[in-house]
Every structure is written in structure tokens, then in C-alpha cells.
Amino acid sequence: MIDALVIVDDNSSPRGVAAALPYICSALVIPISAFSPELAQDARMLVFDLNLGVRDNVLFLRSVFSGLPDKPKIVFTSRSDRHEVVQACAVGGATILGRADSKNMLNLTVRQVFRNLGEDFTEGGSESTATAARQAANLYTDITQAVLNEEPLPRTAAANSAVSIVDAVRGDGIDSWLGLVQRHHSHTYCHSMMVSGYAAAFGDALDLDDETVRILTLGGLLHDIGKVRIPLAILDKPGKLDDAEMALIRKHPEHGLEILSAQKGIDARIIEITHNHHEMLDGSGYPRGLRDDEISPLVRMLTICDIFAALTEERPYKEHYSRRVAYSILLDMGGKLDKALLKLFRPVAFQSEFGELKRSNPRSRATSNAEQVARLISTS
Ligand SMILES: [Fe+2]
Ligand SMILES: [Fe+2]
Prior knowledge:
Layout (H helix, E strand, L loop, with lengths): L1 E7 L12 H4 L2 E5 L5 H5 L1 E7 L5 H13 L5 E5 L4 H10 L3 E4 L4 H14 L10 H22 L6 H18 L1 H8 L5 H19 L4 H13 L9 H4 L7 H7 L2 H10 L6 H9 L20 H16 L7 E2 L1 H10 L6 H11 L3 H7 L4 E2 L4 H10 L1
Parallel strand pairs: 1-2, 1-3, 3-4, 4-5, 6-7
Helix pairs in contact: 6-7, 7-8, 7-9, 7-10, 8-9, 9-10, 9-15, 9-17, 10-14, 13-14, 15-16, 15-17, 16-17
The structure holds fe (ii) ion (2 copies).
């Protein structure tokens, strides 16, 4: 399911702030002539960026609104065009946004829509784990918003969130954390929260001191922050990525470096994790092709958590692997990963193997698909 189905006039594209939607949530933009109720069913919300001075468009909105009452709807108008605003209000039942409104406003609106949809972490796990998941998800939204608006990152909230994640993983175990965060509608949120949970558990398994475990956990939450600058249509593309799309995704560690370096007071180890988490010990990684001692132990740990999370994440549009297969894929990566650390990661990876077998998820693959694995490893 996609987050937003964006309906625009034929031969048009989203205008003004509406064009920022694909950076905030997964969005499919379609011309009005391609609209169908089936497409609408597959979206969490409907977004209309139509010329409401056209009578047919207003009639179209009325018919959609009466036929599909349960979907949240956002209608973009030109606030200076009174006629458009009046038409949008007259249709009723929608949130109205101006095309000249700020990205901040758009972000807040989208966030509110998802909150109202009740996509929350209320079932399963203890209340403290649910609170930690909610806190981490809200933090991720605030961070995304801050990056898009070029504002300071909420550093205190980030530090607090890392503490809550560590406490949740220590208290209820990694499995409970993974179960909850996998419910988040956004792939990027879910991935980052999974990686931070694994990072917390891995840090504890190695008996690192509390401060280092928190840094590693926060590194997990922030490592892909550079992806904020890449359209979700590319990040979440179900089919094969072309060379240009792949090149764009592979820019995310450098975007991350740029974003975090521009901030005051971000721990150097978090910046290093963000910049280097796709580097491989044999020099085959990116962006700089670092090798061996140029890659710090914390980065090596995070890279293991990152790839393991990417391989095991349950997403409807991609294959995912059982923990056993995922761990064997990591072993097969040979000199790319730190073998000693990988061995120490084993108990973290299999901590909840029993739970996984008990659930016997029928969608996780027991064998790997080389092309899919290569994509997951190089874009995670
Ligand atoms: Fe990444
Ligand atoms: Fe990642």
C-alpha cells in the first residue's frame, strides 16, 4: 500500500509545495484520467492537485468524495484564488492546503493524517517499548522535517530517544522491539528503527559502556538520514533500479555527512557511522572505498546491523529472508565484513529465533535471490 495517491490534471504535475510530497511519504502521482476506485483503495490517503476552476474537476471530486468516504483527503488550492478555495471547501471532508504553504505545514498535515489513521504502536510489547517506538517515530519525523527546512536537529530528543530504545531492548528484548517497529508504514522509519534496535542489542552483547551503546543506537537511527534527499519513489521502487537511480541512492552517505556536519554538537562517531556505513573492509564499498583500519569498529558493527535488518525486513513489495538465511548471506560476504564481529553478532541475530520459528512467517524466503540481495546490501 502506498501512502498517498496524488491526482493531478492531465499533462500536469504536482505544483508548489505539493511537489514535496514524494519526499515525505511514498506517493504515486497519476493524471485524473487514470484515476480508478481500485487505485484509491490501495492508498492510505488521496491528494488532489487539480485546477478547481474547471467544473468537471469539481464534479469529479464530489463523486470521489461520496464514493470513498473513509480515506483521508488533502486538496491543494491556490489560496489567492478565492474561487478554488470556495470550491474545495464546498466539496467538504478534506484538509485544504495552499500550494504556497510551507513544507513544514505539509509535513505537519501528513503526520496528523497518519496519526489519525491510528498507525501507532499500541498493541503487543510493553508500554515502555511502545512509548520508545512512538518516540523514535516522532523523532524521525521531526528530524526529516528539520532537514527539509534546514533547521537545527532536535538533539536532546534524539539523545532521549536513544536512551529509550536501549532501555526497551534491554527490558523486553530485541524481538519485541522489532515486532512493534515493523508496523510503521514508512520503510525508512521501520528500517532505521530496526537498525537502532539491533545496534543497541549488539552493543550490549559486546559489553560496551552505556555511552557507546547509546551512540551506536543513535547512529542506527540516523545512519540513513541522507535518504531524506532522495525521492521515495526511487527508494521504495519495487522493480529494478536503473544505473542513474542506483547512483542517486548511493549518494545518501555523502548527503548524510553534509546534513550532520552542518549541525552543531553532533558526536563525531555518529557522523562517521553515517558517512561510512556502506564501506567494506576489502575496499569494495562506497562512497570512498575505504578499507581495513580506515573503518572503525563502531562502523563495522553498524554495517552488520544495517545489512541484517535490510535482509530480514518484512515489506510487501520485496522479498525478505529468514534470520538464518540472512546470517548466512552475511557470512558469505567474506572479507567485506569483520568476521570476528560477525561471529559476536550471531547471538543477537538468533536471540529470538525460536519466536520466529514459532510464528513461521510464510512470506520469508528460505533461499536467497542474488540480484535482490545485491540491491539490499548496496542500498540499505
Ligand atoms: Fe544506508
Ligand atoms: Fe540502512
